């Protein structure tokens, strides 16, 4: 007899497993299908984020940061260390352990919430009176029926035309996280989040890193003042960043990879590297979903078409995360997953796209929420700006990390916070206060009047809010 479920979630990445948990909390009989496999062939839920994205990259960033600190900064603290070396195999093994801990944690959460987990690829078969028939192709194929279907199949790395990933010399984010040795020369195409984070990891470990970016501006989505500060810091660290390039022929051989490109001056250049990481964006993953079997509408990018509530073109079929419109961020997927489960229950799930934080986990970290100064100018919004440097922050001095600043943008008339931009130590943690403030439509004055602990990095947030009214106290 075919198993029947109230809700079937296809995909157990951040959007999928969270949607399944919230649906189960709301009393629905829920199943979650996911095909990710670990090295032994067992289930590895968590999607790209847990397996080859957010989690493993942060593990490598942390390891490489320790190595960099020991080599270049411990002496400032009176700590003398000699003969520091990196065991790359052990670093990668630790990363794999962190990934497995997260995989196991998700499996535990699914079991705890009495969710039926099915290991395999989920695809549509047909619509029925009871909902939708879904085939699960795994070790043992089976078919289930769900009244409501939530698609959370994520995204895949985009390759360059005619240059497929071989994960040996030409790497996606997956291969970049599995390198077993430090390449002498490393090339990256794309200076986005993945490019900068992976470039930082291997640069710290000794690689000569060159980043090729097609756009004429660095981090175009980031506030211009923040991007300039970050570019200055990365260049000082040793990352070679070339903007406005046009990539030509890429040849891969036994000795490495050769990249022919035209630089911003129009000159023909050839870059020879041991490994090449390509990070030029991601594409929605609908491979094997059998969307045609039920008439599920996709757009020209291959993304599933949804409305503002994540409803697809089919009744009772929903989609969340990277496979739909909007930023490809794990936390955005999670919020949509919760909202959809609540909408199925007749509640009013809500996701505010204007207060979704963005983070780049380099050193310095970069984080922001809301609109940039460039966007406010284009939108014709009258605004006030205030910033405060970490150089004038006592905790930052004690940490020995004073790069960067906090910047506030507020409405010129109402003082409502329109955007907060941070480049500097622990920006990923500091941005949370700004998200909360904007969600409650706080003014810069509200943050300026709130007591912040001393000494703390968060004082830079308060001082930047004070700067909007030109009344900083410590700068």
Automatic annotation (TrEMBL):
GO biological processes: 2-oxoglutarate metabolic process
Cystine bridges: 49-54
Domain FAD/NAD(P)-binding: 5-337
Chain residues that bind FAD: 58, 122, 153-155, 322, 328-331
Molecular functions (GO terms): dihydrolipoyl dehydrogenase (NADH) activity; flavin adenine dinucleotide binding
Broad class of where this protein is predominantly found: cytoplasm
Active site: 454
Catalytic activity: N(6)-[(R)-dihydrolipoyl]-L-lysyl-[protein] + NAD(+) = N(6)-[(R)-lipoyl]-L-lysyl-[protein] + NADH + H(+)
Pfam (any one): Pyr_redox_dim
Top EC group: oxidoreductase
Subcellular location: Cytoplasm
Chain ranges of the Pyridine nucleotide-disulphide oxidoreductase dimerisation domain: 356-465
Keyword Flavoprotein appears in the UniProt entry: yes
The organism's place on the tree of life at top rank: Bacteria
Keyword terms, alphabetized: Cytoplasm, FAD, Flavoprotein, NAD, Nucleotide-binding, Oxidoreductase, Redox-active center
EC number in record: 1.8.1.4
Binding note for cofactor: Binds 1 FAD per subunit.
GO cellular component, one term: cytoplasm
Binding site for NAD(+): 190-197, 213, 281
Cofactor(s) in the UniProt record: FAD
InterPro entries: Class-I_Pyr_Nuc-Dis_Oxidored (IPR050151), FAD/NAD-bd_sf (IPR036188), FAD/NAD-binding_dom (IPR023753), FAD/NAD-linked_Rdtase_dimer_sf (IPR016156), Lipoamide_DH (IPR006258), Pyr_nuc-diS_OxRdtase (IPR001100), Pyr_nucl-diS_OxRdtase_dimer (IPR004099)
Family: Belongs to the class-I pyridine nucleotide-disulfide oxidoreductase family.
Additional observations: The active site is a redox-active disulfide bond.
Protein name: Dihydrolipoyl dehydrogenase
Organism of derivation: Rhodoferax lacus
């Amino acid at each position: 007899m075919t198993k029947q479920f109230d809700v079937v979630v296809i995909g157990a990445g951040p959007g999928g497993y969270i949607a399944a948990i919230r649906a189960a909390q709301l009393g629905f009989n829920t199943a979650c299908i996911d095909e990710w496999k670990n090295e032994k062939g067992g289930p590895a839920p968590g999607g790209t984020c847990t397996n080859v994205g957010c989690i493993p990259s942060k593990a490598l960033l942390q390891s490489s940061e320790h190595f960099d600190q020991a080599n270049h900064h411990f002496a400032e603290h009176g700590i003398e260390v000699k003969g520091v070396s990196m065991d790359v195999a052990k670093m990668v093994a630790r990363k794999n352990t962190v990934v497995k801990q997260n995989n196991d944690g998700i499996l535990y959460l699914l079991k705890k919430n009495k969710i039926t987990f099915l290991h395999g690829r989920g695809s549509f078969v047909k619509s029925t009176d009871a909902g939708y028939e879904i085939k699960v192709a795994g070790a043992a194929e089976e078919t289930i029926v769900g009244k409501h279907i939530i698609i959370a199949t994520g995204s895949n790395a985009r390759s360059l035309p005619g240059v497929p990933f071989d994960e040996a010399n030409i790497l996606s984010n997956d291969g970049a996280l599995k390198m077993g040795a430090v390449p002498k020369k490393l090339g990256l195409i794309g200076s986005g989040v993945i490019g900068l984070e992976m470039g930082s990891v291997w640069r710290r470990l000794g690689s000569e890193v060159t980043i090729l970016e097609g756009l004429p501006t660095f981090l175009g989505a980031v506030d211009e003042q923040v991007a300039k500060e970050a570019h200055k810091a990365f260049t000082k660290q040793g990352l070679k960043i070339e903007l406005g390039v046009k990539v030509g022929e890429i040849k891969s051989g036994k000795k490495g990879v050769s990249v022919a490109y035209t630089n911003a001056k129009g000159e023909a250049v050839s870059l020879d590297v041991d490994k090449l990481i390509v990070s030029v964006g991601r594409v929605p993953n609908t491979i094997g979903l059998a969307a045609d079997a039920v008439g599920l509408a996709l757009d020209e990018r291959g993304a599933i078409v949804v409305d503002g509530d994540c409803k697809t073109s089919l009744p009772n079929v929903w989609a969340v995360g990277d496979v739909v419109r909007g930023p490809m961020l794990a936390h955005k997927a999670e919020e949509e997953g919760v909202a959809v489960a609540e909408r199925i229950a007749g509640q009013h799930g809500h996701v505010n796209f204007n207060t979704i934080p963005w983070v780049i986990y380099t050193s310095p970290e970069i984080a922001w929420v809301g609109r940039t100064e460039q966007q406010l100018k284009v939108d014709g919004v009258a605004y006030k700006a205030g910033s405060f440097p970490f150089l004038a922050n006592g905790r930052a001095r004690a940490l020995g990390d004073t790069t960067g600043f906090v910047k506030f943008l507020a409405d010129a008339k109402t003082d409502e916070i329109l955007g907060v931009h941070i480049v500097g130590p622990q920006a990923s943690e500091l941005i949370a206060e700004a998200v909360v403030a904007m969600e409650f439509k706080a003014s810069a004055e509200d943050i300026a009047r709130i007591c912040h602990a001393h000494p703390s990095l968060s004082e830079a947030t308060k001082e930047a809010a004070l700067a909007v009214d030109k009344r900083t106290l410590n700068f």
